[in-house]
């Protein structure tokens, strides 16, 4: 590694504030475990899923293995690493991080137990545990952000909106229980619950985080990208979705149109960032593919088509795995770089020597394949295709793990070379 190259690089983040690597990996590794359970669930439950039996308790369990167990677990791990570095604040203590993790993990396990045995009392208990876990975690991260002196309006407000969306998701879970009593139409509350989880929580999170990640990967500046527009549109779309609870599903359709504008704005930002970049990173193949699927999802949502959820699932999966193919090697590089001479941000350049440059292409190809199998299987009631999509998902995870193992191997060689 040529350290003279690092002298010309001026990062806008403080990687010295990064928590110990075990903190975010605790969430991410557990997320992989739940992803495996979700994929196996899709393989085993191919027939009821293909027949559209979304109310089957075991199907609901598989879905929440993916949403609560993988997507949300991974998102919490990312923010555990990301907020101290981006906002230049001390990380949470490792004990506190482990406590938050264990409470949340307990809630997910109890939730799955209640669904597996169709026990509503256990489900109610799990709802309470998850609510406590999410609130405690949210308060901790919110407190970190309020102590930061690096307040960048778009990123800052976007992350806050995502955290609020995470809490609104569990609140809407309580509304789901009330809908069984006839207070609101059950399916309308279900749609809002799903839209909040995918749009307000994960959607606003991705719209915000990528404002830092994309310029970093392309080595470009983020000025003049009008970064606030997609986040504002995403927030307005979410508010319209919530308003549909008191009005009609037509308002939700308009909210989907606004969200489609947020997705288009994000794609435009991505194109401008890549064009201005000093180097092209194959990660943008995966990221761009993910946004295309999310665009398809937002279009389908205008007609309240259930396939919108499937496309969103695969879109977020491709997005997360594409970014992780760079983020996890960077986290490993950060550990190694602390024992090497030179400035702290040399980890950026060391990470480039560790990861597989074209792993995001593999992620994109397998992700689109899985999405097509899911779409055709659901629409045509082909259970074999739905099950095959679960097999593809497992294969996708296998390539991701191989990429991580390779990064760790390269890190070991770098450490041995120093010794």
Automatic annotation (TrEMBL):
Q: Which UniProt keywords apply?
A: Membrane, Transmembrane, Transmembrane helix
- Protein name per Swiss-Prot or TrEMBL: Uncharacterized protein
State the taxonomy lineage. Bacteria, Bacillati, Bacillota, Clostridia, Eubacteriales
- Transmembrane parts of this sequence: 21-46, 58-85, 97-116, 122-142, 163-184, 190-207, 228-245, 251-272, 279-296, 302-321, 361-378, 384-408
């Amino acid at each position: 590694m040529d350290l003279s190259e690092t002298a010309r690089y001026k990062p806008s983040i403080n990687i010295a504030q990064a928590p110990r690597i075990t903190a975010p990996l605790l969430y991410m590794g557990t997320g992989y475990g739940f992803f495996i359970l979700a994929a196996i669930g899709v393989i085993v439950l191919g027939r009821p899923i293909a027949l559209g039996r979304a109310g089957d308790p075991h199907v609901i369990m598989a879905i929440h293995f993916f949403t609560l167990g993988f997507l949300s677990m991974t998102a919490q791990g990312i923010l555990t690493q990301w907020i101290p570095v981006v906002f230049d604040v001390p990380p949470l203590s490792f004990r506190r991080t482990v406590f938050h993790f264990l409470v949340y993990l307990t809630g997910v396990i109890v939730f799955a137990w209640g669904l597996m045995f169709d026990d509503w009392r256990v489900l109610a208990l799990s709802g309470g545990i998850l609510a406590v876990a999410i609130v405690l975690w949210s308060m901790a991260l919110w407190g970190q952000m309020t102590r930061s002196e690096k307040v960048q309006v778009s990123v800052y407000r976007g992350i806050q909106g995502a955290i609020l969306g995470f809490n609104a998701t569990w609140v809407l879970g309580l509304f789901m229980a009330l809908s069984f009593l006839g207070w609101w139409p059950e399916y309308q509350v279900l749609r809002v619950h799903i839209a909040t989880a995918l749009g307000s929580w994960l959607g606003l999170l991705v719209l915000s985080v990528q404002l830092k990640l994309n310029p970093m990967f392309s080595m470009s500046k983020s000025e003049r990208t009008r970064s606030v527009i997609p986040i504002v549109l995403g927030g307005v779309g979410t508010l319209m979705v919530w308003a549909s609870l008191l009005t009609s599903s037509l308002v939700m359709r308009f909210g989907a149109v606004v969200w489609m504008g947020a997705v288009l704005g994000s794609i435009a930002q991505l194109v401008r960032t890549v064009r201005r970049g000093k180097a092209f990173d194959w990660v943008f193949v995966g990221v761009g593919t993910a946004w295309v699927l999310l665009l398809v999802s937002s279009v389908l949502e205008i007609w309240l088509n259930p396939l919108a959820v499937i496309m969103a699932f695969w879109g977020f999966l491709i997005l997360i795995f594409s970014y992780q193919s760079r983020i996890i090697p960077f986290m490993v590089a950060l550990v190694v770089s602390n024992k090497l001479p030179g400035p702290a941000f040399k980890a950026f350049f060391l990470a480039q020597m560790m990861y597989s440059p074209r792993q995001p292409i593999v992620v994109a190809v397998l992700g689109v394949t899985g999405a097509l199998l899911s779409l055709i299987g659901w629409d045509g009631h082909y259970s074999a295709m739905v099950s095959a999509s679960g097999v593809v998902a497992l294969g996708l995870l296998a390539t991701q793990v191989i990429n991580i193992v390779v990064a760790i191997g390269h890190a070991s060689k770098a450490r041995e070379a120093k010794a």
